Amino acid sequence: MTGTALRDLGRRTPFLPRTGDDDPPVTIPRDPAREAAERELSKPTYHENDPGLLQRALNRFWDWVDNLFTAASGATPGGALGLLVIVLAVLALIAALWWRLGTPHRAPASSPALFDDRPRTAAEHRAAAEAHAAQGHWNQAVQERMRAMVRALEERALLDPRPGRTADEAAAEASRPLPAHATELHAAAQAFDAITYGGRTATEPMYDRLTTLDTALTRSRPTLDNTPQGAPN
Cβ contacts of residue 63 below 8 Å, gap of 6+? Predict the structure, then answer.
């Protein structure tokens, strides 16, 4: 046999292992060979350096974010730069709203009570309000000034002392004997609720407005027709 024929035979005949010099070649069917390979590759030795479950999840997440931004930049005028400008504008708008409106809070199903379980006099609430105002704690100052106003009306018998009364209820009830101050009373109650339960931030002018109202209520005489029975003139 010539050398050329031997080379051609080698190209046509695949190498097959033999068990012995005179034994026929060993062949393995396709399916068992695949299963054997899968069993071999499933051994822990081949997966020692594989990323963990958390790392794989993070990789998929960042791949998704990358694909999302790639698609968005392709659809945005100006490409990636245009998308960046839009994102920065949205973030600036959110920051401005956050600064203007304060931290968002879930609105309560019903307004909680104006007073806590420790009854104090109007003078005590006023003293607490002034102490908070002196330190620039305007939220607490406004709250205590509102409590002082309502407690003073109870002490004058213009409001019946009632546990669990809300600021809105106090304003509505006080507006009957003091109709000239109805608008300011309701505004004060709304400010109290917004600060206490709505996450708004009080200011010094807001506190000054409630202080002025407190002084005006102290000097006001009730309307006789609307005064609760037993109240002094």
Answer: none
